Amino acid sequence: MTSKLQLYSFFMSSCSFRVRIALNFKGLDYEYKAINLFKNEQSHPEYLKINPIGYVPALVDGDIVLVDSFAIILYLEEKYPQHSLLPGDLAKKAINYQGRGLKPYTQISERVNQMKMK
């Protein structure tokens, strides 16, 4: 029996929003697990066991846990090829990947600085 995908998400997170779009576009059944960032739920020990970084989103698929929206979307694209999110043409696919690298680096830097301040 295959377990249902679980998405740990915050409704206002743009990264979580991207994953929800991908899941729904692909028609995948998943369990939504709300993580309220305003209540600092991302720092609760239960969530940190799933995602030690404490970011949203996090996708659990059986024994696999993915915690980056881009990695989650690529995983979903490979595992569930129905309703493809990316073009089949390599050049067009590469264009979709452009500009991806800057925001996560900024987020990681901010998180490291937050941790240093504690």
The H-and-E topology, N to C, reads as EHEHEEHHH
Q: What is the residue-averaged pLDDT?
A: 84
Q: Please describe the biggest sheet, giving its number of strands, its sense, and whether it closes into a barrel.
A: 4 strands, mixed
Q: Which strand order do you get reading across the main beta sheet?
A: 2-1-3-4
How much beta, percentage-wise? 5-15%
Please specify the SSE layout and strand pairing.
Elements: E1 5-9, H1 14-25, E2 30-34, H2 45-50, E3 58-61, E4 64-66, H3 69-79, H4 90-97, H5 102-117
Parallel strand pairs: 1-2
Antiparallel strand pairs: 1-3, 3-4
Helix pairs in contact: 1-3
Describe the structure.
With 118 residues, the chain is α+β, with helices and mostly antiparallel strands. The protein is built from 5 helices and 4 strands; from the N terminus they run E-H-E-H-E-E-H-H-H. The protein has helices at residues 14-25, 45-50, 69-79, 90-97, 102-117, and strands at residues 5-9, 30-34, 58-61, 64-66. It has a 4-stranded mixed β-sheet with strand order 2-1-3-4. Helix 1 links the parallel strand 1 and strand 2. The N and C termini lie far apart (43 Å). Residues 104-109 have low confidence and may be disordered.
Please provide a brief summary of the model.
Helix content is 45%, strand content 14%.
Features:
single chain; 118 residues; alpha+beta; four-stranded mixed beta sheet
